[in-house]
Design a protein that fits this description.
The chain is mainly alpha-helical and about 80 residues long. It has one domain. Helices cover about 90% and strands about 0% of the residues. The protein contains two helices and no strands. Helix 1 packs antiparallel against helix 2. The chain starts with a helix and ends in a 5-residue tail after the last helix. The relative contact order is 0.12.
Length: about 80
């Protein structure tokens, strides 16, 4: 189980880095396009994309945590072991 937990920790670091880069790019797009199209409109577009991206990454993280939990429960109740 330790190997799976370490792999999950490493993957969470990669996901956090990808999420940071995505939000950084959205912030840059806000600054670039906000000047031309209006900051009050672009903030909603960027926030909408940020919510969608955050939702996708949260589903990935929760799926991995659920998988890890199911493996732990399966090994606990495994017959003969």
């Amino acid at each position: 189980m330790g190997m799976l937990a370490r792999a999950l920790g490493d993957h969470l670091k990669e996901v956090a880095w990808a999420l940071f880069l995505t939000f950084f790019i959205l912030g840059c797009l806000y600054l670039i396009f906000g000047r031309h199209l209006g900051y009050e409109h672009i903030i909603w577009v960027c926030l909408g994309f940020a919510v969608i991206v955050l939702g996708v990454f949260m589903m990935i993280i929760l799926g991995e945590l659920l998988w890890l939990g199911l493996l732990k429960v399966f090994r606990y109740f495994k017959p003969g072991g």
